[in-house]
Design goal:
single chain, mainly alpha, Serine Threonine Protein Phosphatase 5, Tetratricopeptide repeat, 2 domains
Length: 196
Amino acid sequence: MIIVYLAYAFPEKVPHIKAFHHLEILAYLSLSQCKLKTQQFVESIDHATKALTKALEVDPPCVPDHKSAILALYRRAQALGYRVEYAQARSDLETASALLGKLEAAGNGGDTMTGMKDFGTRFSKKLQRLSEKLQQMQAAHARRTKMLSRKMFQTSSSQRQAQTTSDSSDGTGPQRMSDGDLDEYVRRFVEASRIV
């Protein structure tokens, strides 16, 4: 609702333009978090990408909001991790870490960077935890895939062994898999993947 309001509001004064721009970024970040919590990962990625785009806009009078950009990258990496897109998630984490490092290096004790050190410390820990979680998720996914593959091929090899035994008893020897057998094979694979 707020996104629609902000899309049709056209402030004319510079402070209002900046405030509306910041509200739009926060709205997209909040929507991304909500979609992440409700396991709507594609929508979460979309909202985080929109927040990232808005945060890095350089249109005057708005200036890039690096803190929001880091948060958007973090949220998008979380959603990508749940969608089993680990390479892209790691790329987002690396970009967020690099942006955080640049932001900390640029902070020279000015008024705008007062809380930057605390933000940098907290967020670098969050990025590290998410990176470790992504590694665990990737390892678990690899184990599940390996187990499903093993289960699928064990079932099919036992069926083939039974088929070979029955074929050799009638003297015809092993035969090619028929379309019905192939359909059964695919059905068992889908069924096995639902179990895990």
